[in-house]
Amino acid sequence: MLFFDSETVGFHGVAILFQYAVDDGEIILYDVWKNPIHETLELIEWFMSQEMCFFNAAFDHFHLSKVYATFSMFPDQDAIPEDHIDELAILEEKARLFPFCIKPKACIDLMLHARKGPYQSLMKRKDIRIRRVPTRLAEPLQKELERRIELDGIYFARRKDKLAPRWSIRNVHLPNGDINPDFKDIVLKFHASGALKTLAEHALGYKSDVILRMSDIEISKKAHPKEFGYAPFALAVGRPGKWNWAWPEVIHMHISHWAFNSLARKYASNDVQYTRDLYYHFNQPRVGDTDSELACMVGAVRWRGFAINIDKLRNQRAKCVAAKTDAPTSPNGVKGYLREVMSPLESKVLNDGTGVVILESIAKWKVTVPDPLALDPLAEMEVLAKAAIRAQEVLDARQADKEILDLDKMILAGRFHASFKVIGSLSTRMSGADDFNPQGVKATDDVRECFPLADPGFILVGGDFDAFEVVISEAVYKDPKLRADLLAGKKIHALFAEELFGMSYDQVMITKGTKDDKYVDGKRGIFAMNYGGTAYTLETRIGVSEEVAEKAFKSFGERYPGIARARKRIEKMFCSMQQPAGLGTQVIWKEPKDYIESLLGFRRYFTLENKICKALFDMAQNPPAGWKNVRIKVKRRERIQTASGAVQTALYAAAFAIQGSNLRAAANHEIQSTGATITKEVQRVVWDLQPWGVHPWSVLPLNVHDEVLAPCVPELVDKIEEVVDKTVESFRPIIPLIKMDWKKGLTSWAGK
Fold first, then answer.
1. How far apart are CA 108 and CA 279, in angstroms?
2. What percent of the chain has pLDDT over 90?
3. What is the predicted pLDDT for the residue at 381?
4. C-alpha–C-alpha distance, residues 663 and 567, integer Å
5. The DNA-directed DNA polymerase family A palm domain covers which part of the protein (predicted)?
């Protein structure tokens, strides 16, 4: 096993140092810019013949790919690169189209491996908020939370002040923006770290005071380069003689730092040692797992990038600018804009912010007005409220701003450098990275026509799964009647809309694509149901009343009992707090499950959430006796309560919020994690057609949501279709209705 790490100029510049070791052998530090170019190329070629162990393979392999391509194009292979910085920086942009791909024999990424087990809990997660605690008891509650809930320091490892309270007291604001003097929120904000040094301390047992961290050896801030993750080359920032602080302007400081600073070199050596120790700590996980192989693929493909049509991108940008409205987009500006046409009561909805979900809910508000076309003078009609019109204007303006920004990034880059976190969520789905989210590219033909993706000499192939989440849901529900309806060609979104709006199937389908699109509302309802949503979710997302939504859920469950059984099963597993006698009665605790598995066995753990939920429940059940001596009363949510009673209510509410989040995440996981795994496996078998070692580019896979695309050489077109079909079919025993529409000879992303 070859254990590898690298040190770089910034995140997207160039590698300065390679550090590596074979098995339990000596750790070697190799100065990339101080050795002849041919030696570096030969070393990388040798790396590619090995089984490699990384901690963040996507990062390291991106830099290996960049160095190999750029150095290979330099005419003097005996040159010392430190003496030719500007020349190499100019070559860097052209080296993206270097015809050879480098790929290790096999690899294991320990960062990704850690995310599949107990260290999964270190991934990004939402704050836990105890809302509207009486101010008089806010500080006592904060101290009690600190005392009762013991949490490992690894969940706060990225905090600057390690001694600060983990639970913080936050102000609550009135609708007019003033601070509410009567209440505070208590917030637990995670700052977890799954970094190598953190795992060295918490998993391997290294003492914190002997671990060298970047802050101990970091180069001066004036040596930090200006860089763009979506345009990872120096000429995107500056030019020779005016590099504008791109990596060529600061690299000399980095070369000296990593070559001559003994502490920095010790830091670099330690990284290989920690990686090797972690490999043994994890019982030598097998190399060549799909996530690790895809991480190397992401690094290699990100460096090369995909072809884009600059002229079409510029035309699209001009259209966006011309269509953009003057609606405000900043949170405070939006609040002011909407409050102009809202009543004080209506404006309370803005207390929770101006995010997409809130604005989409407001955009559905309607009011009743006289019908000017009716013969009856008392006749009325529903129209969109003024606040709804303005909310939609804000949504459109924000979308336009984002689209313009994305187009500007692509125009500057000249290519589409798609970067991903291979395990970017707790469901194992990929997510975008490095200052540009490929999954956020607008899914309209006029935008995607700007992305031909395939360079000359390559053919674009690709496809997406047909109704992917629906067929996975069907496999989860195991309902014979639902399967029969789907096989008969009926759309589940329209079937749910029938129950939601009391319409026939044909009536729903007639509205599809119109302004009053009930089919789309049915689709939102199905997604809400699949992912553990409640009647309140439908009220906020679709605009129907909770009563109507509850009735739709119930009747749909009666129509398809498998759906109701699946929802009940999730509730039984993760509904830890119950009120058997009904709302307002005693709350009892039932130990929830620790994890849920996708249909393919990937686990999503709830250990941390369950621990905090139980602690909040216990505190609500048994608060400190002294709190009852605080003889003040407060009005909380239209109820008059004692201060102690209000705290108990707030604790229960926070615990129920965690439980609700767990229920939604569990339902989500069974479907989304299954889909993510299948999509990755398809992408993997396509990437397997690229030989390991150093070979001409054969295929460049790209995965966005349920789509897999791949520019490839002509001789692989049919082979890719064959391996994709075989892989998709291999999942049919688990997902009976699985189907992928695969196409060959596409002219752009839009053709998929």
1. 9
2. 75
3. 85
4. 9
5. 444-716
- Report the SS3 class of residue 183: strand
Alpha carbons 256 and 245: distance in angstroms, whole number: 17
Query: Is 540 within 8 Å of 362 (Cβ atoms)?
Result: no
From start to end of 116-178, where are the E strands? 128-134, 167-173
In Å, the largest CA–CA distance within the chain is 92
DSSP 8-state class, residue 645: H
Q: Residue 382 — very low, low, confident or very high, per pLDDT cuts 50/70/90? A: confident
Coarse DSSP helix, strand, coil percentages of the chain, rounded to the nearest 5 percent? 50, 15, 35
Residue (of 665, 742, 103) closest to 426 by Cα position: 665
Round to whole Å and give the CA distance between 452 and 742. Answer: 17
Short-list 411, 68, 78, 409, CA closest to 227: 409
Q: Are 689 and 705 in contact, with CB atoms under 8 Å apart?
A: no
Instruction: Enter the pTM of the model.
Output: 0.92
Nearest to 10 by CA among 274, 212, 233, 193: 233
pLDDT tens digits for range 715-727: 999 999 999 999 9
Token code pair at residue 310: 């600059």
Residue with tokens 């609040």: 335
Which are the contacts of 269, defined by CB distance < 8 A and separation ≥ 6? Answer: 19, 27, 29
Average pLDDT score over residue span 617-642: 85
- Containing 80, the helix (H) or strand (E) segment is none
| DSSP 8-state secondary structure symbol assigned to residue 425 | S
**Average pLDDT value for residue range 71-78:** 97
Average pLDDT, the chain: 93
**Highest mean pLDDT, choosing among 321-335, 555-569, 656-670, 674-688:** 674-688
Q: What are the structure tokens assigned to 684, written together?
A: 């993997």
β-strand 707-712 against 702-704: which pairing, if any?
A: antiparallel
Render pLDDT for 445-480 as a digit per residue (tens, 0 to 9). Answer: 999 999 999 999 999 999 999 989 999 999 999 999
C-alpha–C-alpha distance, residues 289 and 688, integer Å: 12
The upper half-sphere exposure of residue 56, i.e. CA atoms within 13 Å in the direction of its Cβ, equals: 14
Q: Which residue is listed with tokens 């079909």? A: 725
The residues pairing with 742 across neighbouring beta strands, listed in sequence order, are 463
Task: Report whether CATH 3.30.70 matches the domain 459-466+679-751.
Answer: yes
The answer to whether the beta carbons of residues 214 and 266 sit under 8 Å apart is no
8 Å CB contact between 496 and 552: yes
pLDDT in tens, 490-529: 999 999 999 889 999 999 999 998 888 999 989 988 888 8
Q: Which residue has the higher pLDDT, 178 or 301?
A: 301
Query: Can you tell me whether residue 189 is helix, strand or coil?
Result: coil
* Residue of 40, 26, 5, 7 whose CA lies nearest to 264: 7
The edge-to-edge listing of strands for the beta sheet with 179-188 is: 128-134, 179-188, 167-173
